[in-house]
Task: inverse folding
């Protein structure tokens, strides 16, 4: 992890994600295979009663919709006011806030999800955020999520044409490999699994699209950066 890439001018990350989540929600279309995988992983965990799930970082709300279809007690936490309002209008329980100060009581959730979230945090935010996640988890519960695999942060640097600030185009601050994410989370959890994985969609892609998906899957599982592989992790409290 590192903090070498600064944030853009004004309120930085909040403005970035307000734009993507409200003006360009199609940005999150490719996230569906990744989120579907996490939903399947949660479904495999055996708990009594209806699972209580907190998703940190709503994106376009796809995860929340799928979780509700599964009959889960789903909550969403996001810093963007418009995103939270849109989820509330759909009947989804959503709160505005940040990972460092989660506005829920101790021991509230069976599952906490943070998919493509931790890479946006500074070292101090990471520690505070995971401490908060542990706090709101029940005694036997799971923290699941993803981060980009071995991302070269400098390749996605851009410059604000108005103020000259250099920043990561998606607001990423940290880069992880399997060992580092496992070591970081092991400071807070007794049982941590982390593995490299590429999430690829095949449905409705046609012959050419299916071939491209297979190629990306092979390259990603070999760790090729061009295929944008991820690290999937599960940590048990």
Result:
């Amino acid at each position: 992890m590192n903090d070498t890439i600064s944030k853009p001018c004004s309120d930085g990350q909040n403005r970035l994600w307000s734009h993507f989540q409200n003006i360009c929600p199609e940005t999150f279309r490719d996230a569906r295979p990744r989120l579907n995988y996490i939903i399947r992983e949660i479904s495999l965990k055996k708990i009594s009663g209806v699972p209580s799930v907190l998703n940190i970082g709503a994106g376009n709300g796809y995860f929340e919709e799928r979780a509700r279809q599964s009959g889960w007690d789903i909550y969403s936490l996001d810093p963007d006011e418009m995103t939270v309002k849109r989820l509330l209008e759909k009947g989804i329980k959503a709160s505005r806030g940040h990972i460092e100060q989660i506005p829920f009581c101790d021991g509230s959730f069976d599952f906490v999800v943070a998919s493509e979230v931790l890479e946006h945090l500074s070292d101090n935010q990471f520690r505070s955020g995971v401490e908060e996640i542990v706090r709101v988890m029940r005694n036997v519960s799971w923290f699941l999520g993803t981060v980009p695999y071995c991302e070269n942060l400098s390749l996605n640097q851009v410059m604000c044409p108005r103020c000259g600030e250099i920043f990561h185009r998606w607001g990423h601050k940290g880069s992880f490999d399997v060992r580092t994410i496992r070591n970081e989370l092991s400071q807070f959890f007794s049982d941590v699994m982390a593995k490299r994985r590429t999430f690829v969609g095949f449905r409705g892609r046609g012959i050419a699209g299916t071939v491209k998906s297979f190629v990306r899957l092979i390259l990603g599982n070999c760790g090729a950066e061009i295929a944008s592989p991820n690290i999937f992790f599960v940590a048990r409290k």
